[in-house]
Known about the structure:
The protein has about 240 residues and is α+β, with helices and mostly antiparallel strands. The protein has one domain. The chain has seven helices and eleven strands. It has helices at about 10-20, 50-55, 70, 110-120, 160-170, 205-210, 230-239, and strands at about 25-30, 40-45, 85-95, 100-110, 125-130, 140-145, 175-180, 185, 190, 200-205, 215-225. Strands 3-4-2-1-7-10-9 form a seven-stranded mixed sheet. Strands 5-6-11-8 form a four-stranded antiparallel sheet. A hairpin with a 2-residue loop joins strand 3 (about 85-95) and strand 4. Helix 1 (about 10-20) runs parallel beside helix 5. The longest helix has 13 residues, at about 160-170. The chain starts with 11 loop residues before the first helix and ends with a helix. About 25% of the residues are buried. Keywords: Signal. This is Lipoprotein.
Amino acid sequence: MFWASRKPAALLPIAICCLLAGCFEIDTAANFNEKGEANLKLEFAISAELMAIAANPNFQKDGQSPIDMMNKCGEAIPDTERPKGVKSVKSTPGQRSGMFTCTLEVELSDPVAAFASLKERQPDGPTLSIEKLPSADAYRIAATLTPSKDSPFNSDKPEDQIASSIATAMFANRFISIAISGLRIENHNGEGVPDQTKAIWKIPLLGLIGPGASRPFQVQADVIYSEPWYIKLKRKFLG
């Protein structure tokens, strides 16, 4: 989560805390259609202040900056670089409320193959899986978001304690938002809607990068994307 070196060590925790608070947002939405395909939409929003600071060499790792993705937003992705199961990828840069945004739109022709390919490419990435359920036209989705072990907010250093206090106050109402929709969403641990077509998760940033963050967050859901006509009829009249 913290893509930065520890130099200068005294300023880094405070800078990260002040800049990320209110200046960093992630919204993710996945919609599954009746063919079992999916459309993913991810929006990353970063403040102009964070963009400027992150460009500093002191905030880079292995010659890379955490804003490299934002700088490349809008560039076409060659077909040869698309993972298996991915039909198309489009990124669009934008701005809103004083923040730079990058909206990524991905069409998945085969979600299972796409996520398996992603795992092969990034074995150390987030714990995320999707599998086809044998008993229905449905997918089982599971993800685990684990708090960063490198968070400076867990340090006993005086300068990091100051950052922890700032983080607690400023990260309080910031979230990573995830939404999954389909014909029906079952067995989920998020917040549902009355017609069962969507589940929503709002994961607090404090729970991932704040002081004392240690408990992983689980995202679980079964996505029913298609049903026979008689099942739909039965559900309509009998519930």
